[in-house]
Amino acid sequence: MESEVRSISIAVKNLAEATARYECLFGMRGVALPPDYFEPPGMSGTSFEMPGLIVNLVTSTDPSTAVSRHLDKRGDGFYLMTLTVDDLDAAAGELTQAGIQLALPQSRPAGHHGLVNFVSPKYSNGVLVELLQPATGAVSS
């Protein structure tokens, strides 16, 4: 399976403080992510687009989200890595054959981003891995 790292997401409890810190660290302004960016809703974030990598800071506005559970269990830190693939069904088949469990039985649409599935963190050393087949003409972030 060929893939590219598209982005990483860092879960944070205090988005405003983390945004200010990363703006200083990266020497650039972060861009607030619109509410419809997230699937499912209940999250907010800031994005930093750099050459070859997008870094997203994400927090939860709803205690039922996976981000909220991550923050409760592990605190701030590395949460998600997004890999882009050309053919998500083929990639899912290869991973399943290799004994790597996917979180969803079928890939699903992810709003305007394309199709997604996830590698269970149990099979990726505690990191949630999002597999994304970008929609034709999809915009980065």
Summary of the model, kept short:
By secondary structure, this protein is of the alpha+beta class. The protein has helices at residues 15-26, 66-74, 88-97, and strands at 4-11, 31-33, 43-50, 53-60, 77-84, 108-109, 114-119, 128-134.
Largest sheet report: 8 strands, mixed
Report Rg.
15 Å
Read across the widest sheet, the strand sequence of neighbours is 2-3-4-1-5-8-7-6
Q: Percent helix among the residues?
A: 10-25%
What is the level 1 CATH name? Alpha Beta
Query: Total strand count, please?
Result: 8
CATH architecture: Roll
Structure description:
- 25% of the residues are buried.
- The chain has three helices and eight strands.
- It has a single domain (4-134), classed as 2,3-Dihydroxybiphenyl 1,2-Dioxygenase, domain 1, CATH 3.10.180.10.
- The longest helix has 12 residues, at 15-26.
- The protein is globular, with a radius of gyration of 15 Å.
- With 141 residues, the protein is of the alpha+beta class.
- An eight-stranded mixed β-sheet has the order 2-3-4-1-5-8-7-6.
Layout of secondary structure:
Layout: E1 4-11, H1 15-26, E2 31-33, E3 43-50, E4 53-60, H2 66-74, E5 77-84, H3 88-97, E6 108-109, E7 114-119, E8 128-134
Parallel strand pairs: 1-4, 5-8
Antiparallel strand pairs: 1-5, 2-3, 3-4, 6-7, 7-8
